[in-house]
TrEMBL record:
Domain HTH tetR-type residues, every copy: 9-69
Record field: transmembrane: none
Lineage start: Bacteria, Bacillati, Cyanobacteriota, Cyanophyceae, Oculatellales
Superkingdom of origin: Bacteria
Pfam families, alphabetized: TetR_C_33 (PF13305), TetR_N (PF00440)
Name of protein: TetR-like C-terminal domain-containing protein
Organism of provenance: Thermocoleostomius sinensis A174
GO molecular function: DNA binding
InterPro entries, per database record: Homeodomain-like_sf, HTH_TetR, MT1864/Rv1816-like_C, Tet_transcr_reg_TetR-rel_C_sf
Keyword terms, alphabetized: DNA-binding, Transcription, Transcription regulation
DNA-binding span(s): 32-51
Amino acid sequence: MGRPLKENSLTPQDLVQAAIACLDREGESALGVNRVARELGVKPPAIYKHLDGNTGLRRAVALEIWSNYLTDCQSQMIDITEPRTLLRIGAQATRDFAQRYPARYAVMTQYQMRPTDPEEAEIIQNSLHFFQQSLQLYKLSEDALIDVMRMVNAAIYGFITREQQDLMTLNGFITREQQDLMTLNRSTDQSYEVMLDALIVAIEYIRQNDR
């Protein structure tokens, strides 16, 4: 990298971007104040001037990743109104993001958002809006919509989580004995498409039985 940033010129965004760069190269273990300080060529106390240690750093990074992820997904859904297509695009965009940035995805999904925090509440609302965008045309009642959102989230998140574990195995982070279904002789791409087909059928069933 170029000349290290001087301590007095650092901004919170500098810290977040440096942390994400470390995260992409080295995985979750690199998400720490000491590692980011080395990346920027400064002493750790310079980080504490802007963020509350490792906890504050992880929060800032998680919020930045969520914001980037939602922007990326929404950009792919512009001018599309057919609900099944929206659902597929959103599901594929999420999987693509996880495959491109496994460490970012892990940090993003593991961080527990708090509705009482204004910044985090905004991310939560944006996330729900993105989710509902692909389902709103089904015109579900509030209870049915919650059921569908939970079902879709569990299916997509669960599938991607297992894929991420498979990737970790290949990289030596977990043992091969912990692998199972994702190693069977069947394309995970095909299985993902079948799962999305099943979700669409299930959503339609819920819609028809919604009272």
